[in-house]
Structure formats: structure tokens, C-alpha cells
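To start, an entry.
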Amino acid sequence: MSEHNVPGSKTAPAGGSATGRFRPTAVAAVRLADIGESVGVVVPGPSAAVSVTGISLNSRTVEPGDLYAALPGAARHGADFVPQAIAAGAVAVLTDDAGARLLALSADASVPVLVVDAPRNVVGPLSAMIYRSQPAAGGTPRLFGVTGTNGKTTTTYFTNALLRALGMKTGLIGTIEILAGGEPIPSLLTTPESTDLHGLLALMRERGLDAASMEVSSHAVSFQRVDGVVFDVAGFTNLTQDHLDLHGTMDDYFSTKAELFTPRRARAAVVTVDDDWGRRLASTAEVPVTTLATDPSGGPADWTVSETTARGLGTDFTLLGPDGASLRVHTGLPGSFNVANAALAAVMVITSGVDTAAVQTALDDHDPFTVAVPGRMQLVAEVPAAVVDFAHNTDALARALEAVRPPIPGSRLIVVFGATGQRDQGKRPAMGAVAARLADTVIVTDDDPHDEDPAAIRADVLSGARVAKAQDSLGCSILEVFPRDAAIRQAVDLAGPRDTILVAGRGHEVWQEVKGVNVALDDRVELRDALTAKGFTVLQDDRIES
């Protein structure tokens, strides 16, 4: 993370590392004169020969030989932390006019200072230059980026699992964790800061990884975290209402996503055209596009899903492609949206140049799309069926509820969910309405309230649920239960063996942020404990494709 608080970023638990070791062990030095030339600054005298071997936005992660990027923040300017950065070994500072004035007034800078008008605009390209993360000659790792409102995490896990099934050594960068061929690093941002991201890509090159899959959020594009990165294949899942607290309108939200599908950020694209936004992106993208339709109403596409058949909780389906190409595919995760995620992962890998026959062999031999994705349709128990999912917006909640609806006559669907504080408030009543229409028992509780009043958030969600119940004469029960662990226990107390419990909204997250305090809370643990206390049997399969 950068020195200042970035809107949309997550807060690390007390004592947690902000970034981990996001850089290679060996970096060939770059002369400060060359760095200056790349940003249009002349570095005079002896300073020109200063050797730079790293770059950081955060004084707490500076290592000897680093260029410290002192950027303006919401509350403090990064220039305020220059003494700490120099003490940690920074050999030069990059900042703007405001930062330079602060340094001049305090006389804090004992190292060369490069001043540019908009330092944030050059941090990504400089990181790529210093770490040589994506050299012009190309090479590994082959990089897959996935964007969209829903499905990014699962699609990257599916892509990673398929690439591994093909015999590749892989990396993963996303919401849940970061893998660079070693131990998993818990992730604090869906997409790391550009300095860390380029360091990670260089680390992957150093470790000999063949490919990497990465989530690319709209925040990552807006806050320039992917600047200087070019994806071999960029994939698009869907676009539904979310993050309007940042983007304002759906058109602006779309435009931010669409920036990924330009030559400076991607070489090729696979776009799911099941919605109007996907069709619009496919027609306006500035890179070669392969289209994918998983819904027959989506119209013609290069690849289409057909012959879907339920198998257990999952689905068998066929992917039909150009020139008679055909793939037999299975995903063990429930829901039509996971068919879409699996199809997108398969087509992205094929678009990268992997032979279709090789993909079929990997699918047949390894069943990669049955990989457990933490907090994404994660099954905790079977009797009653108990599922934890990250669904935290209206569309995702609707899809999750439809996916887990029990088919047995007389069985009930119980949902526990809330809404996040200080985020898009317009979706709260809509989420309540969806829950009332699709569940038999609706338990509204707290998600991450942040600095907002939890009761006010619950009231917004409850209003939507109650209006929908009255307007549509629904028979559902609507309850308000808090705190969240009590709501989960209430759901289990109400459930019979034939029922299904869906705990939605937080997925893999293990901390609940309340008034700036991180409270330990894992929906999966709470659900297991409540089920066990009632005498139900829980599953212990916590596999992560690592």
C-alpha cells in the first residue's frame, strides 16, 4: 500500500505486514540518470551515478537502494515520511512540487530529489523499468488478467488450476492470496500497488514461473496500480451495479474497466457477451477480441456454452468454438455463473496459444474447475447444506441464491447477509429485495460497517426486503439479528436437515472492520461451530489451489 490511505483499500490487521516480500532477490542496478531521463528530469553531477535497485511508495517497506516515491495523499503527503525512507536506505526521492516544497522547508532530504508534475503517472512505468518485470523481448510469465464485477476471483483460480494441469509453474495475484511459486501471501488489495506488482512479476520471472493469473479491479485501474503492466490475455466476466461510490455512474464504471482492453494494457482479450456491457466492450475494445456466450440469449459468439447438465452440485457442459472446435468441461462448483467462470478460464488459456486438444486432456485428467476457491460457493456442510459465498452486491446475491435453492419439496433456503458501510448505498435496498424474493428466511445482519452506523445500514437493507415482501405478497420471514456471529447461529437454529443456509457477503475474509478496529470474524468458522453445536456434521475440505 502507499503511504497514505487509498479509498477502497483494506486495512491490515494489527501486526500484519503491509506487503510481504514483493520483489526479486537480485535486481541489476539502474542509474538515477537513466531514471531521470525516462521522466524528463536531468540529474546533475555525482547524483547521476546513484544506483537504484528498487522502488517503494511506503517508507515502511523501503529497502537499501530504493527510489522512494513520495506521493500526495488524502491526509498526509508522502514527503512527510522521507526521513524514515532515507533511514531505511532510500537513495533518491521522486515527488511533486508540493513534496519538494515540504522537503525544502524541513531540510529533510539528504539524497537526490526528482520532481515531476504528476509522480503517480510515472510510478508504474518506473517500477517496470527498475525491476525489468516485462522486458520488451517478452518471455515468461505469461500473464492473464480478469476484470468484471463478479467472478474475478473464481476465474483466476480456475485459470491457475488449468494452467497447472497443463504442467505449468504458475502464480496467482488476487483478493484472497498471492502466490509466486512459494508460500501464499495473504492479500490486502485485490490488485497490489504498482511498485509491488512489478516487483512480484520480476520475482515470478526469477523463480521461473511460466504463467500468472491476476484479478484486475476497477480500483486498480483508477488508482493506477496496473500502470506499466501488459497482459497477454485480458478477460471480462460481467458488469453489474457496484462501486458507484467510486465511479458515480455505470457508464464511468464501464469506461474504467474498458481501459484494460487497450494496447497499452493488453495484447488480446476474451469478453463474455452475456450482457449489454459485454457486447459493448467487445465492439469497442482496441485489442483483438474473442467473444464468449454462456447464455443462449446473448447472441452469436466465437465460443458458446451448450448442453449443460447437472452433475452433483456442479455442471457438465460443452464449449463450442471456431472451426468445429469442441471442449467437454466440468465444474464442481454450483451455479450457472461458475459455468461462465469456467468457460472464460478455458477460452482465455486457448486464446493465449495453448492447443485445444491439450486443454481437453488437462480437463479430463485433472478436473481443474472443481478446485476449492476459499469463500466462493464454499460448502461447509451437506446436511443441512451450508454455503459461504462472497456475494456482496445485488446481482451476485441473486445468482448465489438461485444456485443453492434446494430442490427437495418442503425444504427452505435461509440467507444471512448485510451490506458494507461507506460503500454504494444505492444497492442496499435492492439486495434486501432480492433476498426477500429468493429466500424463505432472510436474516439481515452486519457486514463490514467501517465508520458507518451498523443500524442505519441494516435499516436500508431491511427496507428493501420489507417493501418487496409487501408488494409481491411474499411468504418469507425477515429477521434482523446482530452481531453477525449471532445471526449465523440463528440461521443454524432455524435450519432442518433438508434446508440450505447461505452466508453471503464476506466470503474468505477473517476480519470485520468496525470503527477502525479489526474484529476477528470468519463466516466459515462461525458456521462450522454453530452446526457442530447443533449436532450436524461439517466438512473439513479447505483445499486451496496453491
In short: The longest helix spans residues 454-471. Residues 247 and 449 are 20 Å apart (CA to CA). DSSP finds 17 helices and 25 strands in the chain. The chain has a mean pLDDT of 90.
